[in-house]
Design goal:
The protein is built from seven helices and seven strands; from the N terminus they run αβααβββαβαββαα. The protein is α/β, with parallel strands linked by helices. A hairpin with a 2-residue loop joins β6 and β7. The longest helix has 17 residues.
Length: 223
Amino acid sequence: MTTTKVCHGIESLQKPGRECPLCSRLVAYRAELRELHPDWHNAPVLDYGPVDASLIVVGLAPGHKGGNRTGIPFFGDFSGEMLNGALTASGFASYKDVAAPELGIEPLDVRITNVVKCMPPKNAPKPAEIRTCRPFFLDSMLVSDQTRTVVAVGRTAHEELLKAFELKLKDNPFGHNRETQLTPSLRMFSSFHCSQYNVNTRRITAEQFTAVFMRVREYLSSL
């Protein structure tokens, strides 16, 4: 497999270690969570899925009971259930056990990652933490020749992908089911976040979220 370097031509970077010390607030919160939940992951959450997947899904940061608990991005909470349903419906993943979807998915043709690798308090990383974690995010965006699409789940993911590919926000505003050509061979599909709050307030429905991934599948089939 040939790997294409993108994102300012950076070379491959080291992944954050379990004891990554770079963000003092997140380090302190990690220690607090380890005291409260010693059986949880409580560490940076790395990418999940094959490196040569056709699709990369990008979220903001690990959820409290999702990736921070399980060690897998978008797994174990409401947002994870929404994403799992969308990925399986569109054929990018399959359930480990259809009768027990809580066991999670096998990523068939998708890699899942986050802009920020550690769980932030109240699910809200500070701008400085996003900047500090950006080298690790850029490493996640070293895509293979087979990677042709990215889904940005939420506004921050959309904006960070634009920065990674040196595109201007004013020319590529965020919106649900909006498409942006990042490079001649890589297209971004943006979506409102699949959080429980957004679903409860009807900002997005499961059907609307799944429709984004069905559109990705349609696009890939046209290539």
